[in-house]
Amino acid sequence: MKFHLSREKAVPHTEMKLTLSRWKWVGMMAGTVLIAGFLSPYASSKPDGLDRVAEDQDFASQASPVFTASPFPDYEAGGFSSSALKTGAAGIIGILALVGVLYGITYLLSKRGKADDQKHHRKAE
Description:
Blueprint lengths: L2 E3 L4 E3 L9 H18 L9 H8 L26 H42 L1
Antiparallel strand pairs: 1-2
Helix pairs in contact: 1-3
């Protein structure tokens, strides 16, 4: 059996509980979607990072697309007439995709952890 060590006591892995309530997770997700969906269109349109260096050093014209099959070229989703809606939709879709992938990984790892706990429990008997 695996143990999670904390300051109070050792807790078996199967008895660990999520420390945040479901409503806190919902609130954090809503805040993230609001920021990505409604504030990202107002981000600066001026180039930064490598784009800025490429412009300053006059080699930006030599750039070529690395990933031509991008689902969101220039951080914009298709199907909208407004640039702000395109950017906001791309942000929201990106967050939902990331949450889905992370949830799937977490689900698979938790199933694996439960299976390991059951296997070790049977060996102990």
